[in-house]
Amino acid sequence: MAIKTRFTEAFGVEHPIVQGGMQWVGYAEMVAPVANAGGLGFLTALTQPTPEDLAKEIARTKEMTDKPFGVNLTILPAIKPPPYAEYRQAIIEGGIKVVETAGYKPQEHIDHFKQHDIKIIHKCTAVRHALSAERMGADAISIDGFECAGHPGEDDIPGLILIPAAANKVSVPMLASGGFGDGRGLAAALALGADGINMGTRFCVTQEAPIHENFKRQMVENDERDTKLIFRTLHNTARVMKNAVSSEVVEIERKGGAKFEDVQHLVAGVRGRKAMELGDTDDGIWSAGQVQGLIDDIPTVKDLIDRIVAEAEDVIKARMNGMLS
Amino acid sequence: MAIKTRFTEAFGVEHPIVQGGMQWVGYAEMVAPVANAGGLGFLTALTQPTPEDLAKEIARTKEMTDKPFGVNLTILPAIKPPPYAEYRQAIIEGGIKVVETAGYKPQEHIDHFKQHDIKIIHKCTAVRHALSAERMGADAISIDGFECAGHPGEDDIPGLILIPAAANKVSVPMLASGGFGDGRGLAAALALGADGINMGTRFCVTQEAPIHENFKRQMVENDERDTKLIFRTLHNTARVMKNAVSSEVVEIERKGGAKFEDVQHLVAGVRGRKAMELGDTDDGIWSAGQVQGLIDDIPTVKDLIDRIVAEAEDVIKARMNGMLS
Prior knowledge:
Two copies of one chain form a homodimer. Chain A folds into two domains: 6-210, Aldolase class I (TIM Barrel), CATH 3.20.20; 227-287, no CATH class. Chain A contains 14 helices and ten strands. The first copy, chain A, has helices at 6-11, 28-36, 51-64, 84-93, 107-115, 127-136, 159-167, 183-192, 201-204, 213-221, 244-254, 260-267, 269-278, 301-323; strands at 17-19, 40-44, 70-75, 98-103, 119-124, 140-144, 174-177, 196-198, 227-230, 238-241. In chain A, the strands form two sheets. An eight-stranded parallel beta barrel of chain A has the order 1-2-3-4-5-6-7-8, surrounded by six helices. A two-stranded antiparallel ribbon of chain A has the order 9-10. In chain A, helix 8 links the parallel strand 7 and strand 8. In chain A, helix 2 (28-36) packs parallel to helix 3 (51-64) and helix 11 (244-254) runs antiparallel to helix 12. Chain A starts with 5 loop residues before the first helix and ends with a helix. The model of chain A has no long low-confidence stretch (mean pLDDT 94). At the A-B interface, helix 7, helix 8 and helix 14 of A face helix 7, helix 8 and helix 14 of B.
């Protein structure tokens, strides 16, 4: 049972299924079971407080799997940026062979990684950014639609349009991201021109995901309408789980263009971390995609990946071939 | 060359491709070539000023095709509604066998049509509305995602999520609507659980579409980002082509919650009709979906439908089957 694409061939993984960067979730506990199940998992570099901690997390993941895995490096515009060069060094010295970049101006990072034969998947939300990353040397593009958890950009183009629009112009293998959680979605992504899928929210709702059980149960309970777009007025839109806090932020924004200072106390710092520990889903801000509406259970990572591949195969073999006359 | 689905079987059409209601476009000139090419086209009842005019338009369409076609009846909440009962009578007496309903509270319309053995496709933008229409007796559902031209509703759920979410619950055949324009999209819709696709914007950009050449050329030129959502503050969101007028409406809304009176002069009446006649794409308000970004030519309706079916077949047979190992 397998689906082989340009992506699985170029990156040497069994299944065209990726668990990309997930802030506060992309620990060894998440990445190793994805690797063991034949997917491609990514540690999230900036979830580790220092480059030394990232080096330790890479080593810890290697104790949990013999299969390849990667590291996500998200580049944020910041007055006092994290020590990116040292994070890169930890990745290189850790023997990592694939990095997912995301964010602004990845050129220097791509250049450095490629000097060490590390493959790059650049994640972005617009065709023009995909083409720019390809010119910079990215080996694959992960194109992220309006449905996604976290930052969908400001263009609001869903995958149904964004994937074929990008496929028309991008030459390197392409992952479809945002809105994927089952085999129907994988088959659709392949039909639209992608070579695989990236999933975040769906991987959060697995036995192994290192987040409080209450958040997993909440995402099972939620439907596709239970997300909010916050920070639109700040031109830094994020799709998050609908709860008391995100609803309050949207209301503040609606009343007249929030400044970050107006909502900062609601979304960050001690309050959010404490809510995470306590499993208080109605406090803090939590990334969650619309794919919540397609999530009904909390399987193991291996059961999830096997099921998605089997379902996609069945959709192609039985359902779609059966329609051809 | 054919793709057979529950929809093509139940509605007796050759291809699982529908041209649903399109205000000011759904005339005989649009519908007849769709029918002749093996698709299912719909006249738009309320584009005709009176029920008598609709009766004449049905007769005129029958002179242009021997194949079946339908009529769209959109139910608008209005203080002084159009004479719906008389429009229904024109449809029934015209020998029409399939009606696309859309809008609010279709029960009395569905009941009346079903007494005359007319099949109903109800178009809606949310799973809960689809289930409600199914309970009312609809024979098929056309589920319309956030990508679509015209009214996407207020939930902002794209097809990638909305189609499988609806397929999980709806029993009757289902058309996927919004964002479709090529064979990749048709294959994706079938993978996601739909039994066919509905297209609007793509059918506007054909040789036969009865709209000014300038609008067709503009939609070819536009990319997926060249739409605007207007009337969001009025809870009556519409996706329209980005131009000077729609941009001005959005700006008025952004500045503080427009009343319809504030923008009415920009969008309606003589100014819009004159712009349509003159082919002035930068005046008036024009429905257009994000699928503009996937439209590169102005083919005949028959060439378009044949190409979509052939491409979908090729995606399934060559591309997707080729990935199975």
